[in-house]
Each structure stands twice: as structure tokens, then as C-alpha cells.
Amino acid sequence: MPPASNMGRSSGPLCVESHAPVLEMASAELEKMRSPCSQPFPSFPPACLAMLKSIKGNHRCIDCGEQDPQWAAVSYGALVCLECSGKHRSLGVQTSCVRSIAMDDWSQVEVLSMLEGGNAQLQDFFRRHNLCQDSDFSSTTALTRSNVTTMRYKTKASLFYRQQLGKHVAQLLQKGAYQGREASRRKRRPLDHRNSSVL
Questions:
Q1: Strand partners, 41
Q2: How far is the C-alpha of 69 from the C-alpha of 100, rounded, in Å?
Q3: 3-state SS of the chain?
Q4: pLDDT tens for residues 77-113?
Q5: Which of 153, 100, 96, 113 is nearest to 129 (CA)?
Q6: Per-residue pLDDT for 35 more than 80?
Q7: Single pTM value for the model
Q8: pLDDT more than 70, % of the chain
Q9: Torsions phi, psi of 38, nearest 5?
Q10: How far apart are the first and last CA of the chain?
Q11: What is the 3-class SS of 3-28, one letter each residue?
């Protein structure tokens, strides 16, 4: 496993010049995890990590904007920095399940949640629901860097997001080998136009 400081950089065999080979390797990693007797990966699978790092917005922490986040709020498919990961942990696993990209074991469901989520996607969702630091949360409480985690993730909107992401991942697991974000979005037909832009 490369040191954490090198993670996500395009060096070695996972250079992301073309997504097709990386997608094939990531799909193979995920299929290995599908086996009932397989053990969780001891860290985020390498090809899946290359894909994760290439997702729009994932180069910065979703909550504070710090560069190169190495922790994950798996429930939301988002990357966070070390400081914000502690805030997410304090919310409890029923609200935000936190994992280290390099140090924790990863299951297939958790890896898929990260590949189907993404910081830009979640940030867009928060913006639409006035849960960004530059929007009015309510007439009395504004989101700040110090309260953004507790104010955002304890809302009905955030609950809806994590439930929808969980349903989406469960559907992907039933469909067989992973074919990438674009493929999963092409095949999806929303039931309700208001909620169609969640994933």
C-alpha cells in the first residue's frame, strides 16, 4: 500500500489517462469483494481509489474545504479531513459512518457508496436545501465552519440523501458487475421529478 501522502496521485500502474482500464480493475476488485467468503479490503481498493479521487469535488473536504481529505463519511459517499471526521464520528454511526481511506477495512457496500456519492454531488444537494455556509439555514441560525457538521447532517434532507444513496447502492449490488457512475445513472428512471437529482 502506498503511503497516505501518495494516495490519489496518478503514479504507477493506476494512472488515470483513460477511465476504461481503471473501471475494469475497479469492477474486478468489487467482484472479489462480492464472494461470501471474502474478507473486507484492509484499505480502500487501489483501482477504486483512483476512481474515487477522480470524482468531481473529492480533492477537498466536503465540510471545510481542506485539500486532499483522507477520511470518508461513507453514509454520504463524501470525503472529509481528519478534523471533520472527528465531528462526523461524534454524530454517531446512525447518522454518519466514518472510515479512513488508508487504515480501515472496507466492504463492497461501503466502496460502492463512495464511488456513487461524491463531494460535488453532495454539495449540490446541500445547496438546493440551503445547507451551505453561504446560504441561510434559518432566520436565526447560520451555518459556520464550526457548526456545519452538526447542523447539516441532523436534518431531514440529510436523512433523505443517505437513505437514497443506500437504496441506489443496494440496487447496484443486485445488477451484477459494477459498470461505473455514468452507467448507473443512465439506467436510472426517477419516480418523482422533485427528487430525481439526488444521485
A1: 106
A2: 10
A3: CCCHHHCCCCCHHHCCCCHHHHHHHHHHHHHHHHCCCCCCECCCCHHHHHHHHHCCCCCECCCCCCECCCEEEHHHCEEECHHHHHHHHHHCCCCCCEEECCCCCECHHHHHHHHHCCHHHHHHHHHHCCCCCCCCCCCCCCCCCCCHHHHHCCCHHHHHHHHHHHHHHHHHHHCCCCCCHHHHHHCCCCCCHHHCCCC
A4: 999 999 999 999 999 999 999 999 999 999 999 999 9
A5: 153
A6: no
A7: 0.80
A8: 78
A9: -75, 150
A10: 31
A11: CHHHCCCCCHHHCCCCHHHHHHHHHH
As a whole number of angstroms, the distance between CA 132 and CA 136 comes to 8
What single letter denotes the amino acid at residue 102? A
pLDDT at 149 over 70: yes
User: CA-CA distance, 98 to 47, in Å (whole number)?
Assistant: 21
Residue written as grid cell 436534518: 155
